[in-house]
């Protein structure tokens, strides 16, 4: 068993236990742990292969952790992991800063939005649209098991957003009452499948029936060019069902690319297709290592 410096060990344990905050928070938390650990232990690169695996194992369904692990490992090989990790941190921050304004072009005054789960990017986009006076009502699906949609609604309500929380089973009813669907991403495969909170695939299929566009908001480090749709590692979590007991559920599901209308990232809005996703990921990589 590899003994990790305490800051990194603590960060990985927090990521393993987390039930609400997603891929961006997980990456930032591990980055923080890595940078603190490198300051305390200059020999961490000596076990970079093992550290790489342990970062990914904290949540194999989150591509953000693959990027953190990859940048750490490659940074060690180039002799300056801290420099490249800080460049990754900067690029993540820049993406999150730009996405809300990039997204504004899809809004008209009073645009009604339906969303599922909790995405910090979706929250930032909706807060910005509300501040600019173009956001209408927001419908947040509860997002069971876990109820992450409730957390999103609570956060947005504090800013004055007109938001309702409705049961997941009513999505087909409320899709008729909104203009667009917007979700975040935990991972995106190289062939364009979206890995997101379970229920997303059903929502995407229902949205297609109702001819409502589905927008996916994400930072480039959510793209994992190492996996395709059929080979992506999915995980399960245990949840307590009131009046019943504990059950194990899939945490994510896989939404096929043909069900997704557009991607929104810091580099713009684009038709969802594998070639464009590859370009976005490669551009992000160049900014870190060039």
What does it look like?
With 290 residues, the protein is of the alpha/beta class. It has 2 domains: 92 residues, translation initiation factor eif-2b, domain 1 (Four Helix Bundle (Hemerythrin (Met), subunit A)); 191 residues, Rossmann fold (3-Layer(aba) Sandwich), CATH 3.40.50.10470. Helix content is 45%, strand content 20%. A 7-stranded mixed beta sheet has the order 3-2-1-4-7-12-13, with helices on both faces. Strand 12 and strand 13 form a beta hairpin. It is globular and about 55 Å long. 43% of the residues are buried.
Annotated CATH topology of the largest domain: Rossmann fold
Shape: globular
**How would you characterize the largest beta sheet?**
7 strands, mixed
Q: Could you tell me the strand content as a percent range?
A: 15-25%
- Structural class by helix and strand composition: alpha/beta
Task: Give me the number of helical elements.
Answer: 10
CATH structural architecture of the largest domain: 3-Layer(aba) Sandwich
CATH class term of the largest domain? Alpha Beta
Low-pLDDT sequence parts: none
Helix content, binned percent: 40-55%
Global mean pLDDT:
92
